[in-house]
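Dear Dr. L.,

I hope this message finds you well. Following up on our conversation about the binding site, I have prepared a predicted three-dimensional model of the protein together with flavin-adenine dinucleotide. For your records, I am including the exact sequence and ligand specification that went into the calculation, followed by the structure tokens. Please feel free to forward this to your student if that is useful.
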Amino acid sequence: MSPAVDLVGDLRETVGSAQVLTDPDLTIGYVRDWTGRWTGNTTAVVRPGSVEEVQRVVRICQEAGAPLVPQGGNTGLVGGSIPHRGEVLLSLRRLDWLRPIEHDTGSVIAGAGVTLGTLQAHARKEGLVYAVDLASRDSATVGGTIATNAGGAFVVSRGDTRRQVRGLEVVFADGSVVSTIETLPKVSTGPDLLQTMIGSEGTLGVITSARLHLSIPNGAEHMVMLIGADTLADGLRVMGPGLRAIEFFDRACLEAVMEHRGLVRPIQGDFPFYLLVETTGNLDLEESSPAVVDRSLWVYRESITETINGLGVPLKLDVALPFDRMDEFADAVRALDAPGAIFLYGHLAEGNFHVNTVGSPDPDRASEAILGLVVSMGGAIASEHGIGVAKTGWWRRTTDPGSIELARRVKEALDPNRILNPQVFWG
Ligand SMILES: Cc1cc2nc3c(=O)[nH]c(=O)nc-3n(C[C@H](O)[C@H](O)[C@H](O)COP(=O)(O)OP(=O)(O)OC[C@H]3O[C@@H](n4cnc5c(N)ncnc54)[C@H](O)[C@@H]3O)c2cc1C
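The resulting structure of the complex is given below.
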């Protein structure tokens, strides 16, 4: 960046001094990630309040050659939402407008800064549902969940974020804006190139708003059940019609959550794994299967991430395994040399595993060992949290060369000066 450029002064002039933060006491919440594993630094945190302001901020950064990192709720778990090398932090939280629900199209237009919790409450008031739900719902934003293609517990029945996006408004690295949010329910006039933004983790454009699909609840009575299981293979056999969610966690997760939240043991007996199942159907359980039914059981699953964070700075790896190798993988992780205390949980129906460890003497070595196991068993190194800065090397090593080359060409075309979140994917 040229020393003659007064970047912070230009940003203040554009969005107002109150919306540009440089005091480290004020910026710390924006430069430290949710897990506490990464703490970066920033030239300034900028909080635009309109699409036009986002455009002007991006242009200023482009002209100054100053990289920027888009940020929503900062609940991302792969270090992609914070500036690592002094980049400008572009907070989208003030883009929090929510238009009235359009019942005829079954959709709503939401600003990128609307939290999932607010969006869900808005839909619920009119008898509808926004399909994606995460335990981070009160902070995670529409923009962040689209940029990471967030999943969550209900992917098995309702699909991931990609399935909900009907249109997007995006500010590109040159400050131009493209929008498909004012669209008709069915349009097929060539490729929808804005779909490329889904899962792009802030590296291709800044999402400023979206048109999102809302679902009609099917109205059927559902039950929530906790089941003790000896293996994950036993859990997979439970899947059947009417399934809304099937989550698993291991004994270590349950013990830690009971301790942290002061909760009672929810089920008699002690098992290697527990399954939390939400279903409108009948489960094909053996008579002897230990199970308990209660809608408040979700707290045991939803408290896991927060509980583990309370035990120390965790190494968090989100991966996917072929169904028939999930138990073998769990055994192999537990047999690794000194990864620290291990916690295994995830979204069973997608083969999704959250492998969390706390207290490893060498987290980087533990990460290499665990991801190595995943790849050797035919799994995927990222299931729903994305690549961020945590897995860039593994992304390049495990993605086929044709796809990497295509990603490079798209990046080159949309962000030739690499000012958008430069440490993610390519850092
Ligand atoms: C308790 C807890 C539970 C979680 N459970 C799940 C889960 O079940 N499933 C799941 O998928 N994830 C889960 N997560 C991870 C996280 O909540 C998701 O990744 C979420 O989508 C991040 O949204 P955010 O608004 O916080 O984005 P941030 O963390 O702010 O950013 C994430 C990425 O998106 C980019 N970005 C953010 N906003 C924009 C924008 N407007 N335009 C362009 N790029 C942008 C950032 O640059 C960054 O690369 C969980 C996290 C926590 C803390």
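In brief: The longest strand covers residues 206-213.

With kind regards,
A. P.
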